[in-house]
Design brief:
Layout lengths: L1 E10 L3 H12 L5 E4 L6 H10 L4 E6 L17 E2 L4 E2 L3 H9 L5 H17 L7 E3 L7 H13 L12 H5 L6 H10 L3 H11 L6 E3 L9 H10 L3 E7 L6 H4 L7 H10 L8 E4 L1 H16 L1
Parallel strand pairs: 1-2, 1-8, 1-9, 2-3, 3-6, 7-8
Antiparallel strand pairs: 4-5
Helix pairs in contact: 4-5, 5-8
């Protein structure tokens, strides 16, 4: 069976992003979204989630290019004390991560705080992922898994793109293709740590390579190549308006392109659209049958 979670990142970023997400869900083209705990339209997104219970909503944990939930003084290695913000780029974050300049305890504390903030808005969260996929690195993944487990989260994004998906994304830039290929070496550790934590995940991600270039042609190519299994299509739909221009994101017109591409997506006889909450239910059934 081919199963696909169609997830929109950056829920809560702007009202235009929220509007695109709920419209696509109502068109049966999007099943899931991950919500930012600190963003311009977080509360509006939470209200939408309450009004749309069929939409699976997770926590989009931000550790780069954003503001923390906890006071900066409690995060001396994670947050710039002068600006009160996280590091502005993924490159700087990764460099400091591998130089042991970021304490895992601060990642765990901040991730827990972001999840707790969304839960305080009355949301039942289906999963976690991270802004810019920082949890592909074991030094982020381990504390994130602890935070998720302690907060009652039972599923996590597998951020690694499969080889078949790389081949089905012809328009991706060479540099991004090389980066994704190199980062895939962390996948065995990811699977091991997630299994030990007993969290549910997918067979892999689709569309990470195509971020910024996911048009209708690319989406069709990916769906044509989709093998049996459970996959997540990672998307960033939205409306390119004034709020988005002020939101410190590189994805502007690309969000319109993705929204238009997704409008043609719907379940069919060979493709079942699900969300992460259903993966958790299946994991529970498997664990219970194993115990009995």
């Amino acid at each position: 069976m081919k199963r696909l979670i169609v997830n929109a990142d950056d829920f809560g970023l702007t009202a235009g992003v929220n509007r695109a997400i709920v419209e696509l869900h109502r068109q049966l083209a999007l099943t899931s979204a991950t919500l930012m705990a600190v963003a311009q339209a977080t509360r509006q997104a939470a209200d939408i989630a309450h009004q749309t219970p069929s939409l699976g909503v997770g926590c989009h944990v931000v550790l780069v290019d954003g503001e923390p939930v906890l006071p900066p003084a409690q995060l001396p290695t994670l947050v710039d004390q002068a600006t009160g913000r996280f590091r502005p780029t993924l490159g700087k974050f990764v460099q400091d991560l591998f130089l042991n300049r970021i304490r895992p305890s601060e990642i765990e504390a901040e991730a827990s705080a972001q999840i707790a903030r969304l839960r305080s808005l009355g949301l039942s969260l289906t999963h976690v992922d991270t802004h810019k996929h920082t949890h592909m690195f074991p030094r982020v993944l381990a504390p994130l898994l602890r935070a998720a487990g302690n907060q009652g989260i039972h599923a996590i994004r597998n951020p690694f793109e499969a080889s078949w998906s790389l081949a089905a994304t012809p328009g991706a830039p060479f540099l991004r293709r090389t980066q994704v290929h190199i980062l895939n070496r962390f996948q065995p550790t990811f699977r091991k740590l997630v299994a030990q934590a007993q969290l549910a995940t997918t067979d892999g991600a689709v569309g990470v390579l195509a971020t910024g270039t996911l048009d209708a042609r690319t989406l069709h190519s990916l769906l044509q190549a989709l093998p049996n299994g459970t996959w997540e299509l990672v998307t960033h739909p939205g409306y390119n308006d004034a709020d988005l221009a002020n939101a410190r994101t590189r994805l502007l017109s690309a969000r319109e392109t993705e929204r238009e591409a997704l409008q043609s997506l719907s379940a069919n006889a060979e493709l079942q659209l699900i969300h992460f909450g259903q993966l958790h239910s299946e994991l529970n059934s498997h664990l219970n049958s194993s115990i009995s």
